[in-house]
Amino acid sequence: MAKFLTELDCHLKSSCENIWILDSSLIYESDIVGRIVVPAGFETDLASVPRLIVIYELWGNRCHREAVIHDYLYRQDSVPQASKLQADRVFLEAMRVRGKPFYIRWFMFAGVVAFGWMSYHRKKVFP
Prior knowledge:
Blueprint: E1 3-4, E2 10-14, E3 19-22, E4 26-30, E5 34-38, E6 43-44, H1 53-59, H2 64-73, H3 84-97, H4 102-115
Antiparallel strand pairs: 1-4, 2-3, 3-6, 4-5
């Protein structure tokens, strides 16, 4: 059964860029791709929700742990390697595991399915 094995432990690196750094590994057991260990030192923007007032108020600042897992799986050299579809499905799975409401899960999932191609495999885990 899918579940988070550790809590999100991170600090803000740069407020102007909204970049966060993991202070310890985030570990998630996925039914889709198996165990995912996002290493300490990994940099993420958490969830890339547009900062338009209405959109951000409804869907922003809600799925940080899930977004870190998704960001990691989108990297060229993540372990395990995941296709874009697998990474997007893990994001949806993790939101369900964390008890996010249906309207949050499906809106955010639709967003990564539609626009994630702009980020998929564009970066490495540690540049």
